[in-house]
Amino acid sequence: MANPNPKHLAKLKEGVDAWNQWRKENPEITPNLRKANLSEANLREANLSGATLREADLRKADLREANLDGANLQCAKLGYAKLGCANLHGANLQYANLRGTKLHGANLQYVKLLGANLDFCSGFSYQCSSFDKKTDVRLKRQEIYHLLRDNCNDPEWLELRELLIDFGNKFHRADECGLIEKKNQ
Q1: Domain assignments of the chain as residue spans, ordered by start
Q2: What is the number of H-type helices and E-type strands within the chain?
Q3: What tens digit of pLDDT does each residue of 122-162 get?
Q4: Residue (of 115, 112, 119, 107) closest to 145 by Cα position
Q5: How is domain 1-135 classified at the CATH fold level?
Q6: Which among 10, 30, 137, 141 could disulfide-bond with 171, CB atoms 3.0 to 4.6 Å apart, if both were Cys?
């Protein structure tokens, strides 16, 4: 399965309405769009649930409100894609490049993000739909670093903040963004 299924790719290129109708008529088929070039494609509201999009080029694609439930997007290029309100429940985004992606309102529950690049993403927020995502220490350092940069003068937070600074300063862009100094030195 090195390349996309040409029939699946041709059907998708007919447009989202034709694609969604085909999916409805063929629920037993798992679409193979592996390594497909879909950069800048309009896939808004597309039913891509369970699809194989491994290593696909989806840079700058419009995937708003798309159904990517359980899709395999391992190593996919999603840089600057629009994923607002997309359903990514259980999707595999391991080692995917999501740099600059817009994720506002996306369902990230149970998504796998090990090794994913989330630099400059917007909308990667803490909401109920993002519970139980699987991440790695690189992403945790990035999340903690960003939390540490927030302004909060609550004494309990300030105490916890001091304990987390060394961890957050190991964020892969901390030197570029500026190391955080401890207040109690």
Answers
A1: 1-135, 139-177
A2: 5, 0
A3: 876 666 666 788 888 998 999 899 889 888 889 999 999 99
A4: 119
A5: Pectate Lyase C-like (2.160.20)
A6: 141
